[in-house]
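Worked Example 4.2. Read the sequence first, then its structure tokens.
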Amino acid sequence: MMLKLDGKVALVTGGSRGIGAAVSKLLARSGASVCFTYLTDDRSALRCEDEILRMGQSCMKQKIEVSNASKVRKAVDAVLERFKRIDILVNNAGVWKRGEIGKMSEEQWDETLDVNLKGTFLFCNAVAPAMKKQAWGRIVNIASTAGQRGEAFYSHYAASKGAVIAFTKSIAVELAPHNINANCVAPGWVDTDMTANVLQKRSERKAIERIIPRGKVATPEDIAGAVLFLASDLADHIVGTTINVNGGGMLM
């Protein structure tokens, strides 16, 4: 029962596909009203919204760029206008694109940092006052194992996710006195559209699975479970931590 989110309002960025969609749907199944953002895929957004509505839960979708401060503010204001509160914020929107050092363009670097880090900051910054006012909140930022140990050819991505972890620890100390818990979930390899260009190659997938003690790549639902836990009352005394969901891959 402590995993029930009845009466709670959740805002999930990048919530129409992959990890974000799994999080949106699991939070809805647990009783929360769910608002999610997306950028381009209207069909997936409609599908996710329809699934949540068929669960009997309220749902609101918004098509925005998470790195645009004015659009983020308008998106948060729209949720507050309709639902009067935001209890759970999940910053999931992200990009993961190869970029070799020495060849990476400034545009590649900026895009990754803008979406992965600036977007997380903008939503936390916009939502924190409402959470303080209601004296309750849960912020779950999606990080990555890359942010903990680095990732060759994805240094911009690793830098952004490492910064998300440090950012989360910092705001966790600020927000804890207001009964707002901020934490991270750090996935390893996850079977999503973002990683399909690698995981659909049988030889590369097998090589990746060999270095994961569990012997398999995570599903989006595996990550969503950790998010639900951190959003629930069971995680009431967990502040500023990072939960690794990688099948033991960080140990290898």
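Now turn to a second chain, presented in exactly the same format:
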Amino acid sequence: MAQLNADTLRSIAPRFSGGNGAQQAAIIDAVGPVLHAILAQYAIDTEIRAAHFLAQICHESAGFRATEEFASGSAYEGRMDLGNTRPGDGRRYKGRGLIQLTGRANYAEYGEALGLDLLNNPEIACQPITSLRIACEYWKRRDLNRFADQDDIETITRRINGGLNGLHDRRAYLMKAKAVFGGTAPDSSAAPILRQGDKSAGVTLLQTKLNAAGYKVTTDGSFGPGTAAAVKQFQATKNLTPDGVVGRATWAALVDVAPDKSAAPTLRQGETGTSVTLLQTKLNAAGYKVTVDGRFGPGTAAVVKQFQAAKNLTPDGVVGQATWAALA
């Protein structure tokens, strides 16, 4: 797996200015030098595992800019299910960490696991490196590597959030994380095996890669007959068994595909489709936060102009061959 560092986090995170930007920089600069080593201690050691982990903590920490929840914690006062049995426990043991640790009982449990006195010094949980260790310990205790290997963002989100709150943003961060690692998981042990009938973020990634290779499919996360047919065509051109099953060999063949001219048409505000999805994915990979929804709206247009200006291109918001080439 590629070395993880502060630049990895910056490539995934949204951009902030002012006080928010300073807070984000402080967290990223503190965590970056130890990120790879700490994740390895928790077997978050393949690209698909790291992508899911980083996407989730990016969302949970409001874009790597907070290791403490914004609310006071008074809402947790008297919550026996959290072990808050003494007056003031709600505020004292409010949510802290990149995946927020909440409640007296959890502070005691994780403090013991990490060898820290979090009960008497709960503020320690806010320290960036400690907050990363708490998130990793949480990840391990809920067996989330298993679901990352399956590219199952919904189960991971439910085990962290209790529901699917923020799923859209978590998916967007996951797409950016995958793009940082080259668009898919080249580690054969981590690449999910996909078949017709599957529905997941892994299928969305597959469809994006097929479109980049010039095979027109709808990017909807559903492995239907159209996607199966495109997979078989792709496999045949790569001298693979054209069975429509996306295993390790097919993923490996998809890793290095680049958009050809037919897959990268000139795009303007108001357009929709898989080419717009590909554009948005590449913008996110370049560090420009944009929602990956296949719709070229005002937000995408504004980000395109920013990217073009940074690349010394005419910032007209029209994505032609020069802009595609800069994104490649």
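Notes for the reader: The chain has four domains: 6-67+133-180, 74-126, 201-254, 261-327. Confidence is low (pLDDT under 50) at residues 183-190, 258-263.
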